[in-house]
Design a protein that fits this description.
By secondary structure, the protein is an alpha+beta fold. The protein has 2 domains: about 100 residues, no CATH class; about 110 residues, Dna Ligase, domain 1, CATH 3.30.1490. It is built from 5 helices and 12 strands. The strands form 3 sheets. A 4-stranded antiparallel beta sheet has the order 1-12-11-8, with helices on one face. A 4-stranded antiparallel beta sheet has the order 2-5-3-4. A hairpin with a 4-residue loop joins strand 9 and strand 10. The protein is elongated, with a radius of gyration of 27 Å. The two termini are about 20 Å apart.
């Protein structure tokens, strides 16, 4: 995390680092804001040629899976989800599949489009395609998606470069074996957009600790992100 960000960036020759306002709980925030997704799948194991001649089997499976995923999403409060179909396909004799979109409604034209997408995906993944070989549809997948919370992140007014209002004291910090360095500490909650300061420094907050290593600098942007960069902020 931010405690080792500068050291890791130095090792990988990365010149800048973005630290969101709540890095310690960012994954939890993303989970709460993410789309609601439900998947269902059923084995088909038929050749595409057979299904194209009579798509009724695939249509029946699709309708059954679509009912299942929409029912689950309805329990989550999603009344009108987006429903898509995917098909796991392979050349006959292969023991592995590639998943490609299956256009809706499920009919002969949709299967031809999926087969063409499979040939293209196989060529992209493995460097070759075999359009004259028999293609099998192995598994039909249906995915229902309900939109997430889509939170509107606030933007704050630019204050200026002076970060002394967030300074909460100095502490000795060892960055190498040459000894301790008197290092200013800053309260992340008090940092304002436009604030800048050079390392070494430590930024403290409720969910993480950020080390601004010597040779690095920090800048706060309009959304409260802290940017760490080599050299001047």
């Amino acid at each position: 995390g931010p405690l080792h960000a500068c050291e890791l960036a130095d090792a990988l020759a990365i010149p800048s680092i973005l630290l969101p306002p709540m890095p310690g709980v960012l994954s939890a925030f993303g989970m709460l804001a993410a789309d609601v997704v439900n998947d269902a799948a059923q084995t088909v194991l038929e050749t595409v040629a057979t299904l194209r001649a009579d798509p009724a089997l695939l249509t029946t499976i699709y309708e059954s899976l679509a009912v299942r995923v929409t029912a689950v999403l309805a329990e989550e409060g999603i009344a009108t989800p987006t429903v898509d179909a995917l098909l796991d396909m392979r050349y006959r004799g292969q023991s592995y599949e590639l998943t490609v979109p299956l256009p809706l409604p499920v009919d002969a034209a949709a299967l031809s489009d999926a087969e063409a997408a499979f040939h293209a995906a196989h060529a992209q993944r493995y460097g070759y395609a075999m359009p004259d070989e028999t293609v099998e549809a192995v598994t039909l997948r249906v995915r229902g998606v309900g939109p997430g919370a889509n939170p509107q992140l606030p933007r704050f007014e630019h204050v200026g470069p002076d970060a002394t209002g967030a300074h909460i004291g100095d502490k000795p910090v060892w960055f190498d074996d040459t000894g301790a360095v008197a290092t200013p500490c800053y309260d992340r909650a008090r940092l304002q957009p436009g604030n800048r300061f050079a390392g070494p420094a430590v930024i403290v907050q409720f969910d993480t600790t950020t080390v601004v290593a010597p040779g690095w600098s920090a800048r706060v942007d309009a959304m409260g992100n802290v940017w760490l960069r080599h050299g001047e902020a």
